Amino acid sequence: MRFVPLAAAAALLCSAALTACTAGKEAGPSLGAPRPSGSASQALPAATVELWHGFSTDAEVKAFEEAIARFNQKYPQITVKATKGVQDDQITQAIRGGNAPDVAASFTTDNVAQWCRSGAFQDLTPVIAQDGIDLSVLPAVARSYTAFEGRQCTLPLLADAYGLYYNKALMKGHEPPRTLSELADLAKKLTVRDADGTIKVAGFIPSVQYYENSPSHLGPMVGAKWYNADGTSAIGSDPAWRELLTWQKELVDWYGHDKLEKFRKGLGDEWSAEHPFHKGKVAMVLDGEWRNAMIALDAKDLDYGTAPLPVADDRPELYGSGFTAGTVIGVPKGAKHPQQAWELVKYLTTDTGSLVTLSNALRNVPTTKAAMDSPELVKDANFQTFLDVFAHPKTSTLPASVNSVFNQEAFAAFVAKWERGSVKDLEAGLKDVDRQINDKLKLSGG
User: Fold this and answer.
1) Closest by alpha carbon to 31, among 137, 128, 111, 118?
2) Cα angle at 144 between 323 and 271, to 5 degrees?
3) Is the distance from CB of 362 to CB of 54 less than 8 angstroms?
4) Which of 71, 152, 196, 283, by CA, is between 20 and 30 Å from 111?
5) Residues facing residue 309 across a β-bridge
6) What are phi and psi of 426, to 5 degrees?
């Protein structure tokens, strides 16, 4: 699983009204249609199920094909035709045009709210109940990012969890920090500069423009809220955001914004072997569980460790938790073979062997408790950190919103201005972010 940058994710959204996003030809039966008695393999007629997914590398595609092969052993009469490298905009356009696949998987959770509300993806609630699936096998946070307004229109396939990676050599014997103040102090101690102040090695980069340092990933460190119960923005009213941004700005100022930006812009690509953590340019980074696999591939000799993200000094109960999201999968409106499609979705998201196969190959977190506890799951101390973060009761995600990408981009743009010193009044600026988000919400029908 790979992170989808906000700028790219924005292009995936339908800019028209939600109802227009799925307007178009009706095609095929729905999951509400009568089903064969039971869900045994012999009860379903033969069919070719079309599956679209975003995996594209050879290793990813091979892992997915192995999981599908296991499904075929159980349902030999169902042929799965998988198409790789498909993005959300392609899925939405196909649904609108009446040419939807039977099953679609997405790397991002940002479109779940739109897909659920508009009916672009079918509500799985009836078949989940009919087949007696207990969704408590999934952590509550995974259930929350796959549903919206009572409609379970997707299920989690694999998850991402975020933690702290640290270079043991650069740490110079220090233990990983547990609080924000410890993180700031250690970042300063581990930073190496030239005589003119040029940064050679950064202890920790606090900028939201650095790779995975988005507000959504940082917010759980202080228990910050995005939305009120009515869906309006809570960013301006939640003091946790002010605490986080004050801490962040103080560390940016210690580095010097211009010097930090010069250093950041000279770093290697996030998805290549030139990643600065691989190269010893940064001592500590916030990143997802997949970084373990990339280090094993591109920096085999790197001596590193992982730990939960540091948390607010006055919120010790948050330590061990973090941010999570992940791949979601469902049955689009217009699927030609919805019953067979459902069996494939159910298998990929609930079968322990399938989830373990995918996790071992892709090094993402499996989403059921049984898969996380499976003796077949390959794990070491560095990967275990992310299993524990995902399972932590206080781990959180970005709550579903029909304007998820807009809201994140509006906030991230404000924080970028804040860290470069262009915002004079933090409280007033955060309230203006609230206004932007709430105005957009009104235009979207609440």
Assistant:
1) 128
2) 40
3) no
4) 71
5) none
6) -60, -45
Check: CB of residue 145 under 8 Å from CB of residue 338: no
Q: Show the beta-strand stretches assigned E in 28-87.
A: 47-52, 78-83
**Residue pair 105/54 in contact by the 8 Å Cβ criterion:** yes
Give the separation between CA 42 and CA 40, rounded to whole angstroms.
Answer: 6
Q: Residue 361's closest CA among 382, 336, 378, 344?
A: 378
Instruction: For residues 294 and 291, give the distance between their C-alpha atoms in angstroms, rounded to a whole number.
Output: 5
Kindly report the number of other CB atoms within 10 A of residue 113's CB atom.
Answer: 24
Strand pairing class (103-106; 324-330): antiparallel
Q: pLDDT per residue over 182-221, tens digit each?
A: 999 999 999 999 999 999 999 999 999 999 999 999 999 9
Instruction: Give the C-alpha distances (Å, rounded to integers) separating 336 from 76, 308, 340.
Output: 19, 44, 9
Whether 359 and 86 have beta carbons less than 8 Å apart is answered as no
- Average pLDDT, integer, range 153-163: 97
Whole-angstrom distance, CA of residue 86 vs CA of residue 106: 8
Lookup: tokens for 201: 């090695």
Residue pLDDT, tens place only, 395-439 = 999 999 999 999 999 999 999 999 999 999 999 999 999 999 999
Closest CA to 296 of 176, 211, 199, 379: 379
CA 114 to each of CA 119, 134, 321, 445: distance values in angstroms, whole numbers, following the listed order: 8, 25, 28, 12
* Token representation of residue 415: 């924080």
Q: Are 371 and 358 in contact (CB under 8 A)?
A: no
Q: What is the DSSP string of 2-30?
A: ----HHHHHTTS--S-HHHHT-S---S--
Q: How far apart are CA 172 and CA 105, in angstroms?
A: 43
